[in-house]
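User: I'm curious whether this sequence folds into something compact or stays loose and floppy. Could you predict its structure so I can see for myself?
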Amino acid sequence: MSIKPKPELLHLFERMKNDDNTLVAWDNLPIFSEIPIDDTYGIFSWDDNFKIEGTCSADIEILLRDETTLFEVVFQGTNQGGTI
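Assistant: Here's the prediction. I'll summarize afterward.
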């Protein structure tokens, strides 16, 4: 069984990758978990297992929240408006 990001996080990620101008400021995006992250520098949103991290639409990634894992990059979006 593989763990996947919540659909809401994936949808938000795609909107961010595609520079969706209807998004609120990136420092006020929704969070899809009740489990806090201690240091949120460069982290825009998260669910229980994954986080959206980066600096801009060109380099954001969905990464596992557990930083001890070797498998950091799980999904990368497209700029063609496709779905993951």
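Summary: Helices lie at 7-17. Residues 68-84 have pLDDT under 50 and may be disordered.
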